[in-house]
Amino acid sequence: MTRDSTAPAPTARDVASPAAGTAPPPRPLRRPLLIAAAAVALVVLCLASLAIGSRSIPLDLVVRALFDPGHPGVDPETEAIVRSTRMFRTVVAVLAGTALGLAGAVMQGLTRNPLADPGLLGVTAGAAFGTVVAIGVFGITALMGSIWFAFGGTLVATVVVYLLGSRGRGGASPVKLALAGVAITYLLDSLTSGIALTDPEALDRYRYWSSGSLTGHDGGTLLRVAPFLAAGVLLALSIATALNSIALGDDVAVALGRRLGMVRLRAALAVTLLTGTITAVVGPIVFVGLVVPHVVRLITGPDHRWLLPGSMLVAPCLLLAADIIGRVVARPQEIDVSLVAAFLGAPFFIALVRRRRLAEL
Amino acid sequence: MLGIDAARRPGRATFRLTHPAVSGVVRPRLILVWLTLAAVAFGVFCTAIAFGSGDFPVALPDVVPALWGSGDPATLFAVRELRLPRAMVALLSGAAFGAAGAVFQTVTRNPLASPDMLGITQGAGAAVAAGVAFGIGGGLSSQTLGLVGALTAGVLIYLLAWNRGTTGYRIVLVGIGISWMCTSLTVYLVSRMELYQAQKILGWLVGSLNDRGWAEARPLAFALLLVLPILVLLTRLQRTLLLGDEVAAGLGTPVQRTRLALVLSASALAAFATAATGPVLFVALASPQIAQRLARTPAPPLTAAALTGAAIVLLSDLISQRLLSDMVIPVGVVTGVLGAPFLLWQLARANRAGSGG
Fold first, then answer.
1. pTM of the shown model
2. Which is nearest to B343 in space by CA: A181, A353, A116, A109?
3. For this UniProt entry, which segments traverse the membrane (chain B) (predicted)?
4. Is the pLDDT reported for residue B292 higher than 70?
């Protein structure tokens, strides 16, 4: 795989933060513009997500219900819809998008593989296996019970993948990590289908969880998972410059003073925290983590100091838009967000792949 | 005369004969791997026939004569009518998946690219799920629907990746897009189905050899007979593609035409195999990697990958029939449980620099 030759060569001392606006020459304006446009789009989509649904609420009432609770012009029912049901749904979508987009960008940078996505390190499969074990073997159906099983499955899968992928000479090379991840994924998926197929009740619950849903979460759940997500985001952002060095090849990264083992460990931990938590809460939402970094890379180039924040902002937009469309197209029924995201994202993604010269990894 | 310079390039030797004037490269290790894999596959094939599903006992030494038509009538019936078709489907689909995976991994130069990552398998799945959900093509079997779906996906991927030529990178990315669209469609259809329908379709979606016979084996055998020779002939050109498009073109390889022939052939193999058994995941992904590590070649070897695939599916099918006494678990569940640790073991013990990836 060749690298984009116009990319600035990052050095070990080159640690300017993205906010400082010290973007190197090739795309001086496009990067801040992308961040600004994505931020604006995110706010607009959040408001739209609060207003649109099986019962439409005018935008001014939404704003009033948000910032002025108890206002006489807003009836209590509308306020309840905006401030609880739709608010939590919107927050979950934003959190999920942020986590998945960031995790996808980190994975692709770490493994230097365009096929890499959070499912690759066995993360999603681990969570799915944990959930099915919780339902099928232990009969636990409450979310706060099965979430720990999902989390455990995720953690075990990631650690096993990392240990197996880093054995032998050469340590955890991208291809070995990726292959180990896919092998574990298939192993766990097989076991998951084995349990689900022999236990009709587990199958019934599993097929709803496996299609991904943003609804049915409350503030308590969000508060409990927030620390994991925050830790994951900080960890991921802290390795942006290290990922730039890794993009030049492992040997160059070592020559630039990177400790590869530590960087890979931190990246794996960040991906586990981000996707494990989100998968446990909303089910496996694929495609977002895979596609968004490719789209953002078209604009920012391969510099991870821009790519990571860009992915964090663009991914929630995609997820929110998908969720809103899922509510509208099949009224009064709703279509699950992961399905809409894939259906919307895939043609767009294919069009991008066809039209532009891709910034390859 | 036989000149061997094995010291310079371990794992390969060259020979040059004066009469007739022939020279070439011999890879003793690759030939050894071929023979071993073929022996393993044949051994498992016979064992699967001897101990396959059903209560009639067939002694292992009686299997080979019975295949050629000698033995008592009961044994002949059990071997040739009951168990041989299923074992043939396992053998052929495994070989087809392995070969297709090897070609895709070479064309895209990506060890993760395989028909089940690039949407061909998912195309079959979506077509079959739509057939069950809407009852369309009521007369069409899931075999036909799967074949149509997989071939459509394969052609679609190539056409969409075409923009004044294709690149391996673009085929991979377009394949991912197609794959997720098909997966979403399948998941959506399954979540809207009645539970009994969902159970049926999920049984198909993990890949199964239950109730498979000559009707499935015959088209698959024709496809293999037609496509495998083409792929073997293309091996020489395929090897230059590994050097990158520019170098390959410089060496005189018609890059675009070669890639078109390779992608279409491999898609057809994967489509016929998926139509016969359902998506037996992992075989197409793991077999080329396992074969590459066994043979220590720089790229996935085609024949060895096909033999590895056949051995994996045969062994998995034998286990799936005999593991639980009261039910036959789908073979796709076993390939993952069986093939994954083997691939991991291969990864872990590959301590030569370069062979670990």
1. 0.74
2. A181
3. 31-51, 87-107, 119-137, 144-162, 168-190, 220-237, 260-286, 298-315, 327-345
4. yes
Give the span between the Cα atoms of B122 and B112, in whole angstroms: 16
CB contact under 8 A, B178 and A286: no
Taking only residues 115 to 174 of chain B, the set having a beta carbon closer than 8 angstroms to any beta carbon of chain A reads: 117, 160-161, 163, 169-170, 172-174
Q: What is the pLDDT of residues B229-271, one digit of tens each?
A: 999 888 888 888 888 888 888 988 888 888 889 988 999 999 9
Q: Which of B112, B337, B356 sits opposite A115 (nearest CB)?
A: B112
CA dihedral A227, A228, A234, A239 (to 10 degrees): 170
What are A297-308's pLDDT values in tens digits?
888 888 888 899
Fold of A46-355: ABC transporter involved in vitamin B12 uptake, BtuC (1.10.3470)
Query: Are residues A168 and B187, on separate chains, in Cβ contact within 8 Å?
Result: no
Q: pLDDT, tens digit, for every residue of A255-285?
A: 888 888 888 888 888 888 888 888 878 877 7
- Could you state, in order of their start, the residue ranges of all structural domains in chain B? 29-349
Q: Is the confidence at residue A13, as pLDDT, over 50?
A: no
Task: Compute the distance between CA of residue A131 and CA of residue A203 in angstroms, rounded to an integer.
Answer: 11
A169·B335 Cβ contact <8 A: no
Q: If you count residue pairs, one on A and one on B, with CB atoms under 8 Å apart, how many are there?
A: 177
Cβ-based contacts of B289 with chain A (< 8 Å): 179
Q: Which residues of A52-65 are buried (b: 16+ CB within 10 A; e: fewer)?
A: bbeeebeeebbebb
Of B177, B206, B352, the CB nearest to A193: B206
Structure tokens at B194: 């009645």
Report the top-level CATH class of B29-349.
mainly alpha
Distance in Å, alpha carbon of A86 to nearest chain B alpha carbon: 23
